[in-house]
Protein backbone atom coordinates (compact mmCIF):
# COMPACT_ATOMS: atom_id res chain seq x y z
CA UNK A 1 0.00 0.00 0.00
CA UNK A 2 1.24 3.41 -0.92
CA UNK A 3 1.75 5.36 2.29
CA UNK A 4 1.64 8.76 0.65
CA UNK A 5 -1.81 8.21 -0.77
CA UNK A 6 -3.14 6.44 2.26
CA UNK A 7 -2.17 9.43 4.35
CA UNK A 8 -4.87 11.47 2.73
CA UNK A 9 -7.60 9.45 4.30
CA UNK A 10 -10.64 11.43 5.26
CA UNK A 11 -11.37 11.13 8.94
CA UNK A 12 -14.87 10.98 10.22
CA UNK A 13 -16.43 14.42 9.93
CA UNK A 14 -14.11 15.83 7.28
CA UNK A 15 -15.13 15.74 3.67
CA UNK A 16 -12.75 17.02 1.10
CA UNK A 17 -12.83 13.75 -0.75
CA UNK A 18 -14.46 15.31 -3.79
CA UNK A 19 -11.31 17.29 -4.56
CA UNK A 20 -9.20 14.13 -4.70
CA UNK A 21 -7.79 12.18 -7.61
CA UNK A 22 -9.54 8.83 -8.10
CA UNK A 23 -6.72 6.60 -6.90
CA UNK A 24 -6.32 8.49 -3.67
CA UNK A 25 -10.04 8.31 -3.12
CA UNK A 26 -10.00 4.60 -3.63
CA UNK A 27 -7.18 4.18 -1.10
CA UNK A 28 -8.80 6.40 1.47
CA UNK A 29 -12.02 4.50 0.99
CA UNK A 30 -10.17 1.28 1.72
CA UNK A 31 -8.41 2.48 4.86
CA UNK A 32 -11.15 1.75 7.42
CA UNK A 33 -11.64 -1.71 5.94
CA UNK A 34 -7.95 -2.43 6.31
CA UNK A 35 -8.14 -1.55 9.99
CA UNK A 36 -11.23 -3.61 10.55
CA UNK A 37 -10.47 -6.61 8.36
CA UNK A 38 -8.02 -8.63 10.50
CA UNK A 39 -10.21 -8.59 13.59
CA UNK A 40 -13.46 -8.90 11.74
CA UNK A 41 -12.29 -11.86 9.68
CA UNK A 42 -11.23 -13.70 12.81
CA UNK A 43 -14.53 -12.78 14.43
CA UNK A 44 -16.42 -14.10 11.42
CA UNK A 45 -14.47 -17.34 11.37
CA UNK A 46 -14.45 -18.16 15.08
CA UNK A 47 -17.68 -16.58 16.39
CA UNK A 48 -20.11 -15.77 13.59
CA UNK A 49 -19.68 -18.93 11.57
CA UNK A 50 -19.97 -21.16 14.68
CA UNK A 51 -23.05 -19.18 15.69
CA UNK A 52 -24.75 -20.06 12.42
CA UNK A 53 -23.45 -23.60 12.61
CA UNK A 54 -24.89 -24.06 16.10
CA UNK A 55 -28.32 -23.85 14.51
CA UNK A 56 -27.31 -26.03 11.58
CA UNK A 57 -25.85 -28.82 13.72
CA UNK A 58 -29.04 -28.91 15.81
CA UNK A 59 -30.97 -30.14 12.75
CA UNK A 60 -28.62 -33.07 12.15
CA UNK A 61 -27.66 -36.34 13.67
CA UNK A 62 -24.15 -34.91 13.60
CA UNK A 63 -21.20 -37.26 13.18
CA UNK A 64 -17.89 -35.93 14.42
CA UNK A 65 -15.84 -38.75 12.87
CA UNK A 66 -14.04 -37.58 9.74
CA UNK A 67 -15.71 -38.75 6.54
CA UNK A 68 -18.93 -39.93 8.20
CA UNK A 69 -22.14 -38.55 6.71
CA UNK A 70 -24.43 -36.64 9.06
CA UNK A 71 -28.14 -37.23 8.53
CA UNK A 72 -30.57 -34.32 8.41
CA UNK A 73 -33.23 -35.02 11.01
CA UNK A 74 -35.21 -31.78 10.97
CA UNK A 75 -36.71 -30.90 14.33
CA UNK A 76 -36.11 -34.32 15.85
CA UNK A 77 -33.44 -33.11 18.29
CA UNK A 78 -35.79 -30.39 19.53
CA UNK A 79 -38.71 -32.79 19.92
CA UNK A 80 -36.42 -35.11 21.80
CA UNK A 81 -35.35 -32.34 24.16
CA UNK A 82 -38.91 -31.25 24.88
CA UNK A 83 -39.85 -34.85 25.67
CA UNK A 84 -36.72 -35.52 27.72
CA UNK A 85 -37.44 -35.42 31.48
CA UNK A 86 -33.73 -35.02 32.22
CA UNK A 87 -33.60 -31.92 30.07
CA UNK A 88 -36.55 -30.43 31.98
CA UNK A 89 -34.97 -31.47 35.25
CA UNK A 90 -31.79 -29.60 34.28
CA UNK A 91 -33.79 -26.59 33.14
CA UNK A 92 -35.58 -26.46 36.50
CA UNK A 93 -32.22 -26.58 38.28
CA UNK A 94 -30.84 -23.75 36.14
CA UNK A 95 -34.03 -21.78 36.77
CA UNK A 96 -33.82 -22.37 40.51
CA UNK A 97 -30.19 -21.29 40.47
CA UNK A 98 -31.15 -18.13 38.60
CA UNK A 99 -34.08 -17.35 40.94
CA UNK A 100 -32.10 -17.86 44.11
CA UNK A 101 -28.91 -16.10 43.04
CA UNK A 102 -30.07 -13.05 41.07
CA UNK A 103 -32.22 -11.25 43.69
CA UNK A 104 -29.67 -11.73 46.51
CA UNK A 105 -26.84 -10.51 44.29
CA UNK A 106 -28.82 -7.39 43.41
CA UNK A 107 -30.05 -6.73 46.96
CA UNK A 108 -26.76 -7.42 48.72
CA UNK A 109 -24.68 -5.75 46.03
CA UNK A 110 -26.84 -2.64 46.33
CA UNK A 111 -26.71 -2.73 50.12
CA UNK A 112 -22.92 -2.92 50.18
CA UNK A 113 -22.72 -0.18 47.57
CA UNK A 114 -24.97 2.07 49.68
CA UNK A 115 -22.79 1.39 52.71
CA UNK A 116 -19.67 2.23 50.72
CA UNK A 117 -20.90 5.26 48.82
CA UNK A 118 -19.89 7.65 51.57
CA UNK A 119 -16.16 7.89 51.06
CA UNK A 120 -14.18 7.01 54.15
CA UNK A 121 -10.59 5.96 54.76
CA UNK A 122 -11.54 2.27 54.69
CA UNK A 123 -13.66 2.47 51.54
CA UNK A 124 -11.00 1.30 49.03
CA UNK A 125 -10.08 -1.63 51.28
CA UNK A 126 -13.68 -2.82 51.59
CA UNK A 127 -14.19 -2.41 47.87
CA UNK A 128 -11.20 -4.68 47.19
CA UNK A 129 -12.30 -7.29 49.71
CA UNK A 130 -15.80 -7.54 48.25
CA UNK A 131 -14.46 -7.67 44.70
CA UNK A 132 -11.84 -10.34 45.37
CA UNK A 133 -14.11 -13.33 44.62
CA UNK A 134 -15.05 -11.82 41.25
CA UNK A 135 -11.49 -11.94 39.93
CA UNK A 136 -10.78 -15.44 41.18
CA UNK A 137 -11.18 -18.32 38.75
CA UNK A 138 -14.43 -20.31 38.87
CA UNK A 139 -12.51 -23.55 39.14
CA UNK A 140 -10.64 -22.43 42.24
CA UNK A 141 -13.65 -21.03 44.09
CA UNK A 142 -15.76 -24.06 43.14
CA UNK A 143 -13.16 -26.38 44.64
CA UNK A 144 -12.98 -24.08 47.64
CA UNK A 145 -16.73 -24.25 48.22
CA UNK A 146 -16.73 -27.99 47.71
CA UNK A 147 -14.18 -28.14 50.50
CA UNK A 148 -16.13 -25.74 52.73
CA UNK A 149 -19.35 -27.74 52.22
CA UNK A 150 -17.65 -31.12 52.77
CA UNK A 151 -19.16 -33.37 55.44
CA UNK A 152 -16.50 -32.40 57.97
CA UNK A 153 -16.06 -28.97 56.43
CA UNK A 154 -16.15 -25.46 57.79
CA UNK A 155 -19.84 -24.84 56.99
CA UNK A 156 -21.07 -27.85 58.96
CA UNK A 157 -18.81 -26.92 61.83
CA UNK A 158 -20.01 -23.31 61.82
CA UNK A 159 -23.70 -24.22 61.62
CA UNK A 160 -23.49 -27.09 64.08
CA UNK A 161 -20.86 -26.57 66.75
CA UNK A 162 -20.58 -22.82 66.53
CA UNK A 163 -24.04 -21.38 65.78
CA UNK A 164 -26.06 -24.46 66.80
CA UNK A 165 -28.40 -23.96 63.86
CA UNK A 166 -28.18 -27.58 62.69
CA UNK A 167 -26.78 -30.88 63.88
CA UNK A 168 -23.74 -30.11 61.76
CA UNK A 169 -24.04 -33.38 59.90
CA UNK A 170 -25.66 -32.25 56.67
CA UNK A 171 -24.22 -34.08 53.72
CA UNK A 172 -24.56 -31.03 51.50
CA UNK A 173 -23.40 -32.30 48.15
CA UNK A 174 -25.12 -35.67 48.20
CA UNK A 175 -28.71 -34.63 47.61
CA UNK A 176 -30.38 -32.30 45.17
CA UNK A 177 -31.59 -29.32 47.17
CA UNK A 178 -28.82 -29.14 49.74
CA UNK A 179 -26.32 -29.28 46.87
CA UNK A 180 -28.21 -26.50 45.12
CA UNK A 181 -27.94 -24.45 48.33
CA UNK A 182 -24.15 -24.85 48.23
CA UNK A 183 -23.98 -24.04 44.50
CA UNK A 184 -26.21 -20.98 44.93
CA UNK A 185 -24.21 -19.82 47.95
CA UNK A 186 -21.11 -19.86 45.76
CA UNK A 187 -22.91 -17.97 42.97
CA UNK A 188 -24.04 -15.23 45.33
CA UNK A 189 -20.71 -14.96 47.14
CA UNK A 190 -18.81 -14.69 43.86
CA UNK A 191 -21.22 -12.22 42.28
CA UNK A 192 -21.90 -9.62 44.98
CA UNK A 193 -18.68 -7.73 44.24
CA UNK A 194 -19.59 -7.25 40.61
CA UNK A 195 -23.05 -5.81 41.19
CA UNK A 196 -21.65 -3.72 44.05
CA UNK A 197 -19.12 -2.16 41.70
CA UNK A 198 -21.79 -1.29 39.09
CA UNK A 199 -24.11 0.17 41.73
CA UNK A 200 -21.28 2.09 43.34
CA UNK A 201 -20.63 3.80 40.01
CA UNK A 202 -24.33 4.44 39.44
CA UNK A 203 -24.78 5.92 42.93
CA UNK A 204 -22.27 8.66 42.08
CA UNK A 205 -24.93 9.97 39.71
CA UNK A 206 -27.71 10.37 42.27
CA UNK A 207 -28.56 14.08 42.35
CA UNK A 208 -27.51 15.58 45.70
CA UNK A 209 -30.07 18.39 45.59
CA UNK A 210 -32.94 15.92 45.25
CA UNK A 211 -31.59 13.97 48.17
CA UNK A 212 -31.35 17.08 50.32
CA UNK A 213 -34.80 18.25 49.26
CA UNK A 214 -36.17 14.89 50.37
CA UNK A 215 -34.44 15.24 53.74
CA UNK A 216 -36.00 18.70 54.16
CA UNK A 217 -39.38 17.23 53.28
CA UNK A 218 -38.92 14.90 56.21
CA UNK A 219 -38.64 11.74 54.17
CA UNK A 220 -37.09 8.88 56.11
CA UNK A 221 -34.22 6.79 54.78
CA UNK A 222 -36.44 4.15 53.20
CA UNK A 223 -38.66 6.75 51.50
CA UNK A 224 -35.58 8.56 50.23
CA UNK A 225 -34.23 5.30 48.88
CA UNK A 226 -37.48 4.53 47.06
CA UNK A 227 -38.20 7.99 45.68
CA UNK A 228 -34.75 9.41 45.00
CA UNK A 229 -32.02 6.76 44.93
CA UNK A 230 -33.78 3.91 43.20
CA UNK A 231 -35.17 5.93 40.26
CA UNK A 232 -31.76 7.53 39.75
CA UNK A 233 -29.96 4.20 39.47
CA UNK A 234 -32.76 2.28 37.77
CA UNK A 235 -30.84 1.85 34.50
CA UNK A 236 -28.01 0.20 36.42
CA UNK A 237 -30.46 -2.07 38.25
CA UNK A 238 -31.91 -3.23 34.92
CA UNK A 239 -28.47 -3.74 33.46
CA UNK A 240 -27.36 -5.81 36.43
CA UNK A 241 -30.60 -7.82 36.43
CA UNK A 242 -30.39 -8.65 32.73
CA UNK A 243 -26.72 -9.62 32.94
CA UNK A 244 -27.25 -11.73 36.04
CA UNK A 245 -30.23 -13.59 34.57
CA UNK A 246 -28.15 -14.41 31.51
CA UNK A 247 -25.28 -15.44 33.75
CA UNK A 248 -27.59 -17.48 35.99
CA UNK A 249 -28.83 -19.64 33.14
CA UNK A 250 -25.25 -20.06 32.00
CA UNK A 251 -24.14 -21.66 35.25
CA UNK A 252 -21.72 -24.44 34.34
CA UNK A 253 -18.27 -24.60 35.91
CA UNK A 254 -19.41 -24.50 39.53
CA UNK A 255 -21.86 -27.38 39.04
CA UNK A 256 -19.39 -29.42 37.01
CA UNK A 257 -16.68 -29.04 39.64
CA UNK A 258 -18.77 -29.24 42.82
CA UNK A 259 -21.12 -32.10 42.00
CA UNK A 260 -20.46 -33.09 38.39
CA UNK A 261 -24.25 -32.91 38.01
CA UNK A 262 -24.64 -35.72 40.51
CA UNK A 263 -25.62 -37.59 42.48
CA UNK A 264 -27.30 -39.47 39.66
CA UNK A 265 -28.02 -36.36 37.61
CA UNK A 266 -29.89 -34.69 40.51
CA UNK A 267 -28.01 -31.39 40.22
CA UNK A 268 -27.56 -31.38 36.46
CA UNK A 269 -28.07 -27.90 34.97
CA UNK A 270 -28.79 -27.19 31.30
CA UNK A 271 -25.20 -26.55 30.33
CA UNK A 272 -23.70 -29.52 32.14
CA UNK A 273 -26.39 -31.69 30.51
CA UNK A 274 -25.66 -30.15 27.11
CA UNK A 275 -21.93 -30.64 27.66
CA UNK A 276 -22.36 -34.31 28.55
CA UNK A 277 -24.55 -34.97 25.54
CA UNK A 278 -21.95 -33.42 23.26
CA UNK A 279 -18.61 -34.41 24.71
CA UNK A 280 -19.39 -37.61 26.61
CA UNK A 281 -21.96 -39.23 24.31
CA UNK A 282 -20.73 -37.34 21.22
CA UNK A 283 -24.33 -36.45 20.38
CA UNK A 284 -23.48 -33.05 18.90
CA UNK A 285 -26.87 -32.58 17.26
CA UNK A 286 -28.76 -33.06 20.49
CA UNK A 287 -26.29 -30.95 22.44
CA UNK A 288 -26.66 -28.12 19.93
CA UNK A 289 -30.45 -28.27 20.11
CA UNK A 290 -30.23 -27.86 23.89
CA UNK A 291 -27.78 -24.97 23.53
CA UNK A 292 -30.07 -23.23 21.03
CA UNK A 293 -33.13 -23.73 23.25
CA UNK A 294 -31.29 -22.21 26.20
CA UNK A 295 -30.05 -19.26 24.17
CA UNK A 296 -33.54 -18.55 22.84
CA UNK A 297 -34.99 -18.77 26.34
CA UNK A 298 -32.38 -16.41 27.76
CA UNK A 299 -32.86 -13.99 24.88
CA UNK A 300 -36.63 -13.91 25.37
CA UNK A 301 -36.21 -13.38 29.11
CA UNK A 302 -33.82 -10.48 28.48
CA UNK A 303 -36.25 -8.83 26.08
CA UNK A 304 -39.12 -9.29 28.55
CA UNK A 305 -37.11 -7.81 31.39
CA UNK A 306 -36.23 -4.77 29.30
CA UNK A 307 -39.84 -4.41 28.15
CA UNK A 308 -41.39 -4.62 31.61
CA UNK A 309 -38.81 -2.83 33.71
CA UNK A 310 -36.73 -0.97 31.18
CA UNK A 311 -38.87 2.12 30.70
CA UNK A 312 -39.80 2.78 34.31
CA UNK A 313 -37.19 5.52 34.27
CA UNK A 314 -38.79 7.18 31.25
CA UNK A 315 -42.29 6.71 32.67
CA UNK A 316 -41.54 8.66 35.83
CA UNK A 317 -39.92 11.63 34.20
CA UNK B 1 -22.51 16.63 55.42
CA UNK B 2 -25.28 17.78 57.77
CA UNK B 3 -25.14 14.51 59.69
CA UNK B 4 -21.45 14.82 60.37
CA UNK B 5 -20.37 15.02 63.98
CA UNK B 6 -17.09 15.11 65.82
CA UNK B 7 -17.43 11.61 67.20
CA UNK B 8 -18.50 8.42 65.46
CA UNK B 9 -22.28 8.45 65.22
CA UNK B 10 -24.28 5.30 65.88
CA UNK B 11 -25.19 5.19 62.19
CA UNK B 12 -21.57 5.20 61.12
CA UNK B 13 -20.68 2.59 63.70
CA UNK B 14 -23.50 0.35 62.51
CA UNK B 15 -22.41 0.83 58.93
CA UNK B 16 -18.87 -0.15 59.80
CA UNK B 17 -19.98 -3.24 61.68
CA UNK B 18 -22.14 -4.35 58.76
CA UNK B 19 -19.23 -3.85 56.36
CA UNK B 20 -16.81 -5.73 58.58
CA UNK B 21 -19.18 -8.68 58.94
CA UNK B 22 -19.79 -8.72 55.18
CA UNK B 23 -16.12 -8.42 54.28
CA UNK B 24 -15.24 -11.22 56.70
CA UNK B 25 -17.69 -13.53 54.93
CA UNK B 26 -16.10 -12.61 51.62
CA UNK B 27 -12.54 -13.14 52.77
CA UNK B 28 -12.73 -16.06 55.20
CA UNK B 29 -12.91 -18.71 52.44
CA UNK B 30 -9.71 -17.31 50.92
CA UNK B 31 -7.89 -17.23 54.24
CA UNK B 32 -9.02 -20.75 54.95
CA UNK B 33 -7.73 -21.80 51.54
CA UNK B 34 -4.32 -20.31 52.25
CA UNK B 35 -4.27 -22.03 55.61
CA UNK B 36 -5.21 -25.42 54.16
CA UNK B 37 -2.48 -25.20 51.55
CA UNK B 38 0.00 -25.43 54.45
CA UNK B 39 -1.71 -28.37 56.17
CA UNK B 40 -0.64 -32.00 55.92
CA UNK B 41 -3.37 -34.21 54.42
CA UNK B 42 -4.29 -35.67 57.83
CA UNK B 43 -5.29 -32.21 59.09
CA UNK B 44 -7.38 -30.79 56.22
CA UNK B 45 -10.78 -31.89 57.54
CA UNK B 46 -10.47 -31.90 61.31
CA UNK B 47 -13.20 -31.12 63.83
CA UNK B 48 -12.85 -28.39 65.01
CA UNK B 49 -11.29 -26.91 61.87
CA UNK B 50 -7.78 -25.50 62.06
CA UNK B 51 -7.36 -21.91 61.04
CA UNK B 52 -3.67 -21.78 61.86
CA UNK B 53 -2.10 -24.95 60.46
CA UNK B 54 -0.46 -26.99 63.19
CA UNK B 55 1.82 -28.56 62.17
CA UNK B 56 2.44 -26.31 59.15
CA UNK B 57 4.22 -27.78 56.16
CA UNK B 58 5.52 -26.72 52.79
CA UNK B 59 5.22 -30.23 51.44
CA UNK B 60 2.10 -29.43 49.38
CA UNK B 61 3.98 -26.75 47.48
CA UNK B 62 7.01 -29.00 46.99
CA UNK B 63 4.74 -31.76 45.75
CA UNK B 64 2.92 -29.42 43.35
CA UNK B 65 6.15 -28.28 41.72
CA UNK B 66 7.09 -31.94 41.31
CA UNK B 67 3.77 -32.46 39.52
CA UNK B 68 4.80 -30.15 36.68
CA UNK B 69 2.78 -27.15 37.81
CA UNK B 70 5.64 -24.96 36.68
CA UNK B 71 4.79 -26.07 33.17
CA UNK B 72 1.04 -25.47 33.55
CA UNK B 73 1.76 -22.04 34.95
CA UNK B 74 3.95 -21.32 31.95
CA UNK B 75 1.28 -22.61 29.53
CA UNK B 76 -1.33 -20.38 31.15
CA UNK B 77 1.04 -17.45 30.97
CA UNK B 78 1.92 -17.93 27.27
CA UNK B 79 -1.72 -18.36 26.31
CA UNK B 80 -3.00 -15.43 28.33
CA UNK B 81 -0.23 -13.02 27.31
CA UNK B 82 -0.35 -13.88 23.60
CA UNK B 83 -4.14 -13.87 23.41
CA UNK B 84 -4.36 -10.58 25.28
CA UNK B 85 -1.75 -8.85 23.12
CA UNK B 86 -3.42 -10.02 19.90
CA UNK B 87 -6.90 -9.20 21.10
CA UNK B 88 -6.01 -5.69 22.21
CA UNK B 89 -4.13 -5.03 18.95
CA UNK B 90 -6.90 -6.31 16.68
CA UNK B 91 -9.74 -4.74 18.62
CA UNK B 92 -8.04 -1.36 18.94
CA UNK B 93 -7.55 -1.37 15.16
CA UNK B 94 -11.21 -2.17 14.67
CA UNK B 95 -12.23 0.43 17.22
CA UNK B 96 -10.17 3.03 15.36
CA UNK B 97 -11.81 2.08 12.08
CA UNK B 98 -15.29 2.29 13.56
CA UNK B 99 -14.68 5.46 15.54
CA UNK B 100 -12.89 7.59 12.97
CA UNK B 101 -14.22 6.70 9.54
CA UNK B 102 -17.55 6.69 7.85
CA UNK B 103 -17.90 3.98 5.24
CA UNK B 104 -20.49 1.68 3.71
CA UNK B 105 -21.28 -1.25 6.01
CA UNK B 106 -20.06 0.49 9.15
CA UNK B 107 -23.30 0.27 11.07
CA UNK B 108 -24.00 -3.28 9.92
CA UNK B 109 -20.56 -4.56 10.87
CA UNK B 110 -20.70 -2.89 14.25
CA UNK B 111 -24.13 -4.38 14.95
CA UNK B 112 -22.88 -7.82 13.98
CA UNK B 113 -19.99 -7.33 16.38
CA UNK B 114 -22.42 -6.39 19.15
CA UNK B 115 -24.22 -9.67 18.50
CA UNK B 116 -21.01 -11.29 19.67
CA UNK B 117 -21.44 -9.56 23.03
CA UNK B 118 -24.80 -11.18 23.55
CA UNK B 119 -24.09 -14.77 22.56
CA UNK B 120 -23.08 -16.85 25.57
CA UNK B 121 -19.71 -18.55 25.04
CA UNK B 122 -21.13 -21.94 25.95
CA UNK B 123 -23.59 -21.83 23.06
CA UNK B 124 -20.69 -21.82 20.63
CA UNK B 125 -18.66 -24.54 22.23
CA UNK B 126 -19.94 -27.39 20.02
CA UNK B 127 -19.51 -25.69 16.62
CA UNK B 128 -16.20 -24.19 17.75
CA UNK B 129 -15.02 -27.67 18.65
CA UNK B 130 -16.02 -28.89 15.18
CA UNK B 131 -14.18 -25.96 13.63
CA UNK B 132 -11.07 -26.45 15.76
CA UNK B 133 -11.02 -30.13 14.80
CA UNK B 134 -11.28 -29.20 11.13
CA UNK B 135 -8.43 -26.69 11.48
CA UNK B 136 -6.32 -29.21 13.44
CA UNK B 137 -6.26 -26.88 16.44
CA UNK B 138 -7.42 -29.44 19.00
CA UNK B 139 -5.08 -30.14 21.90
CA UNK B 140 -2.82 -27.16 21.21
CA UNK B 141 -2.11 -23.85 22.87
CA UNK B 142 -2.72 -22.16 19.51
CA UNK B 143 -6.24 -23.57 19.60
CA UNK B 144 -6.77 -21.86 22.95
CA UNK B 145 -5.25 -18.57 21.80
CA UNK B 146 -7.23 -18.28 18.55
CA UNK B 147 -10.58 -18.74 20.26
CA UNK B 148 -9.71 -16.62 23.28
CA UNK B 149 -8.77 -13.74 20.98
CA UNK B 150 -11.92 -14.16 18.90
CA UNK B 151 -14.08 -14.37 22.01
CA UNK B 152 -12.79 -11.11 23.47
CA UNK B 153 -12.81 -8.99 20.29
CA UNK B 154 -16.39 -7.76 20.54
CA UNK B 155 -16.17 -6.49 24.08
CA UNK B 156 -12.77 -4.84 23.64
CA UNK B 157 -13.75 -3.16 20.39
CA UNK B 158 -16.90 -1.86 22.03
CA UNK B 159 -14.95 -0.52 25.00
CA UNK B 160 -12.18 1.10 22.94
CA UNK B 161 -14.46 2.58 20.30
CA UNK B 162 -16.21 4.64 22.95
CA UNK B 163 -12.87 5.93 24.16
CA UNK B 164 -11.55 6.71 20.67
CA UNK B 165 -14.69 8.63 19.81
CA UNK B 166 -14.08 10.92 22.77
CA UNK B 167 -10.63 11.96 21.49
CA UNK B 168 -10.93 15.50 20.10
CA UNK B 169 -11.02 15.60 16.32
CA UNK B 170 -8.72 18.62 16.19
CA UNK B 171 -5.74 16.51 17.30
CA UNK B 172 -6.49 14.05 14.57
CA UNK B 173 -6.77 16.76 11.94
CA UNK B 174 -3.59 18.47 13.06
CA UNK B 175 -1.65 15.28 12.53
CA UNK B 176 -3.23 14.85 9.15
CA UNK B 177 -2.15 18.28 8.08
CA UNK B 178 1.36 17.25 9.04
CA UNK B 179 1.03 14.38 6.59
CA UNK B 180 0.57 11.50 9.03
CA UNK B 181 -1.22 8.55 7.47
CA UNK B 182 -3.99 6.60 9.16
CA UNK B 183 -1.65 4.00 10.64
CA UNK B 184 0.59 6.68 12.17
CA UNK B 185 -2.39 8.46 13.64
CA UNK B 186 -3.63 5.18 15.10
CA UNK B 187 -0.22 4.21 16.47
CA UNK B 188 1.20 7.57 17.57
CA UNK B 189 -1.93 9.43 18.59
CA UNK B 190 -4.83 7.15 19.43
CA UNK B 191 -3.04 4.34 21.18
CA UNK B 192 -1.03 6.59 23.54
CA UNK B 193 -4.08 8.70 24.35
CA UNK B 194 -6.21 5.64 24.98
CA UNK B 195 -3.76 4.14 27.45
CA UNK B 196 -6.28 3.92 30.34
CA UNK B 197 -8.85 2.17 28.14
CA UNK B 198 -6.15 -0.12 26.74
CA UNK B 199 -5.13 -0.98 30.29
CA UNK B 200 -8.71 -1.84 31.15
CA UNK B 201 -9.09 -4.02 28.05
CA UNK B 202 -5.73 -5.68 28.74
CA UNK B 203 -6.54 -6.53 32.33
CA UNK B 204 -10.01 -7.92 31.68
CA UNK B 205 -8.84 -9.96 28.71
CA UNK B 206 -5.85 -11.31 30.60
CA UNK B 207 -7.97 -12.40 33.55
CA UNK B 208 -10.60 -13.97 31.33
CA UNK B 209 -7.93 -16.00 29.49
CA UNK B 210 -6.08 -16.90 32.68
CA UNK B 211 -9.25 -18.21 34.35
CA UNK B 212 -10.92 -19.79 31.32
CA UNK B 213 -12.01 -23.34 31.94
CA UNK B 214 -14.70 -24.78 29.65
CA UNK B 215 -12.91 -24.39 26.31
CA UNK B 216 -9.58 -25.61 27.65
CA UNK B 217 -11.31 -28.59 29.25
CA UNK B 218 -12.90 -29.39 25.90
CA UNK B 219 -9.95 -29.22 23.53
CA UNK B 220 -6.88 -29.99 25.66
CA UNK B 221 -6.20 -33.69 26.17
CA UNK B 222 -2.47 -34.17 26.79
CA UNK B 223 -0.88 -33.11 30.08
CA UNK B 224 1.87 -31.03 28.47
CA UNK B 225 -0.74 -28.67 26.98
CA UNK B 226 -2.80 -28.18 30.13
CA UNK B 227 -3.40 -24.75 31.62
CA UNK B 228 -3.72 -24.16 35.36
CA UNK B 229 -7.53 -24.41 35.75
CA UNK B 230 -7.55 -27.79 34.01
CA UNK B 231 -4.58 -29.10 35.96
CA UNK B 232 -6.03 -27.93 39.28
CA UNK B 233 -9.40 -29.49 38.57
CA UNK B 234 -7.73 -32.81 37.74
CA UNK B 235 -6.14 -32.87 41.20
CA UNK B 236 -9.46 -33.46 42.85
CA UNK B 237 -10.87 -36.92 42.55
CA UNK B 238 -14.31 -38.27 43.38
CA UNK B 239 -13.00 -39.54 46.75
CA UNK B 240 -10.27 -38.58 49.14
CA UNK B 241 -9.21 -35.34 47.50
CA UNK B 242 -5.84 -34.08 48.69
CA UNK B 243 -7.13 -30.66 49.60
CA UNK B 244 -3.74 -29.36 50.67
CA UNK B 245 -2.40 -30.07 47.19
CA UNK B 246 -5.46 -28.61 45.49
CA UNK B 247 -5.12 -25.33 47.34
CA UNK B 248 -1.36 -25.10 47.00
CA UNK B 249 -1.94 -25.38 43.25
CA UNK B 250 -4.82 -22.89 43.46
CA UNK B 251 -2.53 -20.41 45.16
CA UNK B 252 -0.24 -20.55 42.12
CA UNK B 253 -3.23 -19.58 39.97
CA UNK B 254 -4.76 -17.02 42.34
CA UNK B 255 -1.77 -15.05 43.61
CA UNK B 256 -0.86 -13.50 40.20
CA UNK B 257 -4.50 -12.57 39.61
CA UNK B 258 -4.91 -10.92 42.97
CA UNK B 259 -1.62 -9.07 42.47
CA UNK B 260 -2.73 -7.76 39.07
CA UNK B 261 -6.04 -6.76 40.59
CA UNK B 262 -4.49 -4.91 43.53
CA UNK B 263 -2.00 -3.08 41.31
CA UNK B 264 -4.49 -2.01 38.66
CA UNK B 265 -7.77 -1.77 40.51
CA UNK B 266 -8.58 1.69 39.27
CA UNK B 267 -8.77 0.28 35.75
CA UNK B 268 -11.28 -2.29 36.96
CA UNK B 269 -13.59 0.44 38.15
CA UNK B 270 -13.11 2.26 34.86
CA UNK B 271 -13.86 -0.83 32.79
CA UNK B 272 -16.93 -1.70 34.78
CA UNK B 273 -18.38 1.77 34.59
CA UNK B 274 -17.83 1.75 30.83
CA UNK B 275 -20.42 -0.99 31.11
CA UNK B 276 -20.98 -4.48 29.89
CA UNK B 277 -17.98 -6.11 31.52
CA UNK B 278 -19.00 -9.18 33.44
CA UNK B 279 -16.25 -10.87 35.45
Briefly, what is this?
Chain A has 317 residues and is mainly α.
Verbal overview:
- The complex is a heterodimer of chains A (317) and B (279).
- With 317 residues, chain A is mostly helical.
- Chain A has a two-stranded antiparallel ribbon.
- The longest helix of chain A has 37 residues, at 22-58.
- Chain A contains 15 helices and two strands.
- Residues 1-20 and 313-317 of chain A have low confidence and may be disordered.
- Chain A starts with a helix and ends with a helix.
- Chain B has a domain at 66-237 and 254-273: Orthogonal Bundle (MetI-like fold).
- Chain B is mainly α.
- At the A-B interface, helix 1, helix 2, helix 4, helix 5 and helix 6 of A face helix 1, helix 3, helix 4, helix 5 and helix 6 of B.
| Radius of gyration of chain A (Å) | 26 Å
The termini of chain A sit apart by 54 Å
- What is the highest CATH level, the class of the domain at 66-237 and 254-273 in chain B? Mainly Alpha
Shape of chain A: globular
- CATH fold-level name of the largest domain in chain A: MetI-like fold
Give me the secondary-structure category of chain B. mainly alpha
**Average pLDDT taken over every residue of chain B:** 87
Largest beta sheet: strand ordering of chain A: 1-2
- Ranges of chain B where pLDDT stays below 50 over 5 or more residues in a row are 1-5
Strand content of chain A: under 5%
Give the ordered list of helices and strands of chain B: HHHHHHHHHHHHH
CATH superfamily of the largest domain in chain A: MetI-like
Give me the secondary-structure category of chain A. mainly alpha
Mean pLDDT of chain A: 86
Helix content of chain B: over 70%
Strand content of chain B: under 5%
Q: Can you count the helices of chain B?
A: 13
CATH top level assignment of the largest domain in chain A:
Mainly Alpha
In CATH terms, the superfamily of the domain at 66-237 and 254-273 in chain B is MetI-like
Largest sheet of chain A: 2 strands, antiparallel
Amino acid sequence: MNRATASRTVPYGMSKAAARPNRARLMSGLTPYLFIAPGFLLFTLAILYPLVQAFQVSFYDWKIIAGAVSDFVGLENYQRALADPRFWHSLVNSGVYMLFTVPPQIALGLMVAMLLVKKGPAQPLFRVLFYLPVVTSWVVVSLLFKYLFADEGLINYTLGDFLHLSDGETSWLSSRWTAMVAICALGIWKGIGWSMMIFLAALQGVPRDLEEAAILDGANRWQRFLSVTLPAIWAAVIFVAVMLVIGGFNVFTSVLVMTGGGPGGATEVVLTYMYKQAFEYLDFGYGSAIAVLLTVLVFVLSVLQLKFFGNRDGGEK
Amino acid sequence: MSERTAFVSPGTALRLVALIVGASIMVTPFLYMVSTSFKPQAFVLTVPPQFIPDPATLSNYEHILGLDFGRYFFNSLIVAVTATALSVLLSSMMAFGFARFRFPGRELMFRILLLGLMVPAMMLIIPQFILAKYLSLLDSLVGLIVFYVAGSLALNTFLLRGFFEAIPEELDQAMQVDGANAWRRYWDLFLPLARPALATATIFTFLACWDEFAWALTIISTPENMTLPIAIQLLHGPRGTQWGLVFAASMIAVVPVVTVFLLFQRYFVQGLTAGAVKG
